Amino acid sequence: MDASGLNDAGPFFLSGSVGLTGANDRSDVIKAQTLLANTGYLNLPAPGVPTGWPSADLFSGITRLQKDNGLEADGILLPLPRNGIGPNGEGETLQRLKDTIGPRFDGYAAASPEDVDHYFAQQSRRGADESPAGPDAIVTLADQARTGAPVGAKPIVDAKPQISAKAAENRAVVADLLDDPRVRAFLDTLAGRESSGRYNVINGGQRFDDYMRHPNIKGKDSKAAGAYQFIPDTWARMAKELDLRDFSPDSQDMAALHLLRMINPGGVKDANAIARLQRGDIEGAIFAAGSQWDAFPRDASEKSGTGHLRPLQPIIDQYNRRLRDLR
Predict the structure, then answer these.
(1) pLDDT at residue 187, rounded to an integer
(2) Domain ranges, ordered by start, for the chain
(3) What is the CATH number of domain 165-326?
(4) CA 326, CA 310: separation in Å to the nearest integer?
């Protein structure tokens, strides 16, 4: 989980506006209090834990932050659109906060209303607790003085699980191959034939805008999605073998390249698409890829696995043009 990102658990994700005229959802107010406290624009009540309840101090802090950064001082903290700051400046204040303190929240999430209520209930029963923040604790001002952790945050359990040795090896091989113009040209040709090079398309043409995961939505004929039209089962296998955490364009490229390395028609040694490509056997590489992808022919008959005619020469020409562009 990327705590500094825009996933729902991240401290920089707001479901609505916070401010004098804002929606002021309690979870959002906790996040706003947490962020402002960590930039010095809000003094949290002792022992330094957000409450989730809006206040004049919170609204004043938002306004002062905006004035100090040359932003419109309207006292409203708006959600940051997933595609960046909106055309009318929506999310600009939150983006400024993210740019300033985002790295400090790596491995942390803002506390939830339940976390806050539980914390204060415990304090009322046993008095102030100055113990260091544990896996279930909320970071207080005292904790921050000892550890440097962001005030009002919670450590995310297993935020950065260790990658397996095999996945690390697979990723290293794929990363090296992506520097080869022949490989890049082959990937671009394949994506061009499968999806017109669109990383956010579902089978049939529907678009998606959330790259956090494979959309797993039924399109015209299947749930295939992305530039290389991965079906969910294949994607899950590639994601596991490479330890991919999202469906971003970079992850799609890595998964497609890894799959091309795995395809070995007939079980012949070094007969996978990438090995053939690197030997200069572009036809063989296309045929090998065609055993997995319908956009390519699978043999000299120039037919795909589903029987569609896929003339070979236009694919070779497209590859060569792309290779020239890359070189």
Answers:
(1) 97
(2) 18-155, 165-326
(3) 1.10.530.10
(4) 25
